[in-house]
Amino acid sequence: MSIVVFAPASVANVSAGFDALGFPIAPIDGSLIGDKVFITDADSAFSLVSSGRFKHKLPDDYRENIIYDCYLGYAAALEKRGLKIKSIAMELEKNLPIGSGLGSSAASIVAGLEALNVFHDNSLEEHEMVLLMGELEGKISGSVHYDNVAPCALGGMQLMLNENGVVSQSVPCFDEWYWVVAYPGINISTAAARDILPTQYSRADCLTYGRHLAGFIHACYSKQQDLAAAMLQDVIAEPYRSQLIPKFDDVRDYAKELGALATGISGSGPTVFNVMTDLAQAEKLKAWLDANFIQNDDGFTHICKLDKEGARVVGREL
């Protein structure tokens, strides 16, 4: 048997929800932006190879690859249930740049664990899977957080809760929104992006953050598009992280001229997103970003919709 699982890129924080909001993206041209994991039966216990556009960014030693950690973590979870992992061969097709702010590590983790779980007849339940994904994400970023892995796995706009046994829940969003997402081709590590943030915030900033997040969620449920867009303001990370992103202010200014409802930083950056409602203007912004914001061949721009499906099987042979 062989299985292929795709896990999409994701936008976290979404300006209003630092470590609390995230959603996966789907380019409107039908292309897939994310990582794939292939898994097949094998004679030996385990093997792992890498491929894809950003293969060169991965460690040469497979034991330092996050997919190997997925294998070990999944095997341990099966053992707790009295089950044994199969002999398998895995391949990570790495299509997302590392340190891009698009949930690159999350996509690999989600694709790897979902492939393992499907291959083992979905032996682990969804909640247990998401907890394991967050644990493995924490090994890379230094702290357990779910704002990339949960939306990547589950699809849709997700609000992180992590209370009463609930990791996250979906939030309705606006189908008419286009998300113009641009990765300039440079990398910012999550750790470095966190280090630039203050250790303490003023009471005013804390109150503003809570108001923006609550207002955005309320506007999504009450279908107030303009109010939701107005709430997409970041007082926690963007004032500091924007200085790490060349031409961020230029992007915001030009997007606003074209009618963008909001501009923000995806995750830790340097990827930026712009919310548009007019496709022609979104295409004009994409062209400008390609010419003025993208710095090298690693960079790219996509006009996206919110991906409601999340991780999924895209190939299967029995």
From TrEMBL:
Pfam families: GHMP_kinases_C, GHMP_kinases_N. One of its GO terms (molecular function) is ATP binding. GO terms for cellular component: cytoplasm. ATP binds at P97, I98, G99, S100, G101, L102, G103, S104, S105, A106, A107. Its EC number is 2.7.1.39. SUPFAM superfamilies: GHMP Kinase, C-terminal domain, Ribosomal protein S5 domain 2-like. The keyword Cytoplasm applies. It catalyses: L-homoserine + ATP = O-phospho-L-homoserine + ADP + H(+). InterPro entries: GHMP_kinase_C_dom, GHMP_kinase_C_sf, GHMP_kinase_N_dom, GHMP_knse_ATP-bd_CS, Homoserine_kinase, Ribosomal_Su5_D2-typ_SF, Ribsml_uS5_D2-typ_fold_subgr. The keyword Magnesium does not apply. It is found in: Cytoplasm. GO terms for biological process: threonine biosynthetic process. Keywords: Amino-acid biosynthesis, ATP-binding, Cytoplasm, Kinase, Nucleotide-binding, Threonine biosynthesis, Transferase. Pathway: Amino-acid biosynthesis; L-threonine biosynthesis; L-threonine from L-aspartate: step 4/5. Residues 77-156 form the GHMP kinase N-terminal domain. It comes from the Bacteria. Signal peptide: none annotated. Residues 226-292 form the GHMP kinase C-terminal domain. PROSITE patterns: GHMP_KINASES_ATP. Belongs to the GHMP kinase family. Homoserine kinase subfamily. Catalyzes the ATP-dependent phosphorylation of L-homoserine to L-homoserine phosphate. HAMAP family: Homoser_kinase. This is Homoserine kinase.
